[in-house]
Structures are given as structure tokens and as C-alpha cells.
Amino acid sequence: MKGAAVAIASVSPATGEVLKTFDPMPEDRIDAALDRAMGGFDKVRHLSFKERGEWMRALADLLDDERDEIAALMTTEMGKTLAAAKAEVTKCAYACRFYAGRSAGFLADEPADPAAVGAHLAYAHYQPLGPVLAIMPWNFPLWQVMRFAAPALMAGNVGLLKHASNVPQTALRLEDLFKRAGFPEGAFQTLLIGSDAVERVLTDDRVRAATLTGSEAAGRSVAAIAGRALKKTVLELGGSDPFVVMPSADLDRAAQVAATSRCLNNGQSCISAKRFIVHADAYDAFAEAFVGRMSAMTLGDPMASDTDVGPLATEQGRTDVEEQVADAREKGARVLCGGERPDRPGWWYPPTVVAGITPEMRMWSEEVFGPVAGLYKVGSYDEAVAVANDTTFGLGANAWTTDPGEQEQFVADLESGQVFLNGMTTSYPELPFGGVKNSGYGRELSAHGIREFCNLKTVWVA
């Protein structure tokens, strides 16, 4: 993952003020961290699930006890509403307890038929790989990390976190939480490094695998580096999720969920619905309800309890969204609400609905990472599926219909890692999470997620 060194700094998205800066770790400190990771792995891998689970439950308790403080730190660094940040901390605590209680079962030996293979005993056995480099984004600065770390450490691996350069205080707080929960030295460490140092860490023999949530370009870079080094990777690279509405749907409920999904995390969520594909027979009623709900969203101080949408996390992110909307408008699209930045310090952009998107517009093929919805009218089920699948991404998909036959068809026909029917796409520790096509490969969460960074060893006994 090449590129120029990026400043490691907390910058308030609400004001643009630089709050705190950090120097990148020098080479000798990176080497020392990798040595600690190997030492931590030698300890963690030999402990029982019960022992690791006690630390993981202690971590959950710390998250619950310090929820408000941790949430305020996330809001300060990346601008999500305080209510959303508190919910994120609570979700992380739940995931810790989930894996503390279920990992032994997820990684239990899997017996085979010994007679079929000419053995007295035969089974598959899961073992951890070692230190795993986690390259994580800023949009869910706690949850993105924890959904990797909880299963990986419960499996006996250790974590090396290279977090996004605009959330360094959250990254350091995570390392502190793991230490205070009782995990041994080297079990979880934050590396304050820029993207220019990723290749040096990933190719080091002490690092055994990597996981990345981020942009398609970052995923290609990390996959190429890891491929040359023959190291396992899991990639989640974003999405441009369809939200299909058919005539039988509950249109008021669909419009409510559509607005909530599009504005979740200030519009900066990979699995938020982004392209709203509506059958012509339902289009007018849905569009009116949807635009009304988007227009009613409160844009304001992310610390305030009545705020629905805060600022975008970075100035470049706001610029990207503005340019995508401007491109659509210049090529004939209609902006039904929003579309103009407010005149105030910080990186604000209002909830926006753009109709009449056509293939030559950037919004047709690009992910829009802000509270901007593309609205599409289609004339049939087949056209809806064609538009939904006309994207290089395949992370999540959402369809609204009460017709059982259509529901079955959508599950079969939508090209995505997840399909949610008549409800908002989200992630749960109980369900596998990941995508297809350019949204990446591998799975996080559930039993599938904890097995990604394990060696599945065949055991045959005469």
C-alpha cells in the first residue's frame, strides 16, 4: 500500500480545527512492536478459550463503563452523532461477549468418518495463524476494529492495528482498553503509521495475515502486497447498495427506513442504501415520502441530542460528494432536496436526493460517501434487478416487497454478500458479513469470521 506519508492528526469535522497531532512511529519502534506481537502470540495461543473469554468479557465491561467518554472521543474525531457513537460502543461490547461465549463451539474439532479414510480417528482442527495486521477506516472507528479483534483474539491470534490517520486518539484508546482488560503485552497494539509504512509491516515475516476495510484502491494494493508475500487477506471495500421498492411494499415504512439508512453515520456507511430503485407504480408515492423524510433530517452539532446528521469526516470527503452531485446536475439530473453546502465552518453537507440518474453520470457507477441518495424509476422486476446489479460493487442489497415469489427471486438474483428484505441492512455478530465483486472477499462476524484467520489442520490417526 504505497503513497505519501499522511499526517496523523485529530481534526474536528465540525469546525476544521486541528485538535492534536502525532508523529509516525519510527522504524525501531515498529520493530519492537512486531517483536511484542510475536511474544504475545506465544502466550495467547496456548491459553484456553475460558481464559481468553475472561479478558474479552472484561473488555466488554470497560466499554460499557466508559461508553460516554469513548463515544464523545469518536464524535470529536470523525463527526458521527453522539447517539450513534454510544450505540456503536454498546454494539462492540455485545460482540465481545458474543465471541467470549461462542468461540469454543465455533472452533471445535470437526470429526470425519474414520472408516472412509482408513483411520482410527480423523478430524479437522482449528489453530490460530499469528499476528494479523488490521488496516481500518475512520467511519466506524470502534466497531470496524472490534468485529475483527474480538474473533481474532478469541481464536488465539494477536492484532496489530493500523487505523485511519484521522482517528489516532480512538486508535490509542483501543490499545489501552485491551491492556486494561488483562490481555498480555503484545496481544493488541496500535501502530501509528501512515499508508507509506504498510508494505514494510505486511511483508515482515512476523506478520502472518491482514484484514482491510477501506477503498477499492487500498484493497487492491494490500491484496497485491499480501499476494506476493503469500499471506491470507480479508477485504471489505465498500459498496453502492441498491434499495429496491416494488408496488406491494409498505411505502411509508420503506421511505422511513430509506432515509434512516441513507443518513446513517452522516451518510458514511458502506452498507447504507445508496441507490433507490423504485417501480413506476410506486415511484411517485415513495419519492414524495422519501424526499419529505430526507428534508426533515436535522443537520447540526453532532454532540446535540436532536441532531440527525453531523458533518462529513474530512474536507476531501465533502469535496468528493459535492463534485458527484454537481456532475449529475450538469448532465441533467434533478436535485429534489439539499444539494448545497451550508455556509459555516467545518465539512457539512445536507441530506440530498437526486433523481434522473443516467449511466454517464458519476453517481451511476461510483459510491457516494455522504448523505446523498440517487433515485431511479424502473418499469419491471427485471429492470429493477438489472439496475441493482449494474455496479462493480456487491456488498449489501435491500428489497421491499410483500410478494413471496418476488422475495425468493430477489434473494437469488441480487449480486451481493447480503440481502435484507423489508428491513434495513446492518451487521450482526450472529451473521456473516462481507461482499462479492469489487466489494472484496472473505467474511467477518459469525462462525465464518472467526475461522478466517485460522489454519484448518487435518488430523489422521492410524
Automatic annotation (TrEMBL):
This is Succinate-semialdehyde dehydrogenase [NADP(+)] 1. It holds the Pfam family Aldedh. PANTHER family: SUCCINATE SEMIALDEHYDE DEHYDROGENASE [NAD(P)+] SAD (PTHR43217:SF1). Keywords: NADP, Oxidoreductase. The keyword Transcription does not apply. Residues 7-459 form the Aldehyde dehydrogenase domain. It comes from the Bacteria.
